[in-house]
Amino acid sequence: MSNVRNIAILVGSLRKESFNRKVAQNLIELAPKNLKLSIVEIGDLPLYNQDLDDNNQAPAQWARFRDELRNVHGVLFVTPEYNRSVPAPLKNAIDVGSRPYGKSVWDKKPGGVISVSPSPIGGFGANHHLRQSLVFLNVPVLQQPEAYIGGVDKLLDASGKLVDKTREFVSKYLETYAQWVEKHAVPA
Fold first, then answer.
1. 63 domain residue, yes or no
2. What is the pLDDT of residues 73-102, one digit of tens each?
């Protein structure tokens, strides 16, 4: 595993001080040496409308997003749960990246899903709903360990760092994800 793999992190929450963004920043810090993680922003993406692609009027934000995703070896999704599903901005980002038809930026990119919530069930519904979309998009998603970070409001210190066993769990998750990427990575 001598190659460094570029991994995009998509954060489902747009809130500046979101728990999900804090967890994503911890992932960047805890990543093994063979993974270079970076957050790809989704908050500026206009809602997907196929007419814009069909008429060669795709917004610059879509092009930027698609280019950033095209050049990575894998994708980690860090998402809260809204109404037993993923937030609309994350679903929109998935749709933007999957189009135009036949040019999906997601195809065969090794994925991982981490759901984050103050609730005890840790975003279970969002985690599994997101996996349904990723299966359709041909994203091989890490199956084990599953990552549901419940009670996150009690798992971050004052500086936003994950504490205790959660930090240890996330580090082990990333080690397993690194192996998953090596097994499934295609050239970016």
1. yes
2. 999 999 999 999 999 999 999 999 999 999
Residue 75's Cβ-side half-sphere holds a number of Cα atoms within 13 Å equal to 31
The answer as to whether 123 is a domain residue is yes
- Residue 1 pLDDT > 50: no
> Is-contact 109 139, C-beta < 8 A?
yes
pLDDT value of residue 34? 96
Domain that holds residue 97: 5-181
Yes or no: say if 46 and 62 are a contact pair by the CB < 8 Å rule.
Answer: yes
Number of structural domains, the chain? 1
Cis peptide bond N-terminal to 100, omega within 30: yes
Question: Strands 5-11, 74-79: parallel, antiparallel or unpaired by DSSP?
Answer: parallel
Determine, yes or no, domain membership for 187.
no
Looking at residue 39, its pLDDT comes to 98
Q: What is d(CA 136, CA 150) in angstroms, rounded to the nearest whole number?
A: 27
**Which residue has 């504490």 as its token pair?**
163
In a domain, 188, yes or no: no
Peptide bond into 187 cis (omega under 30): no
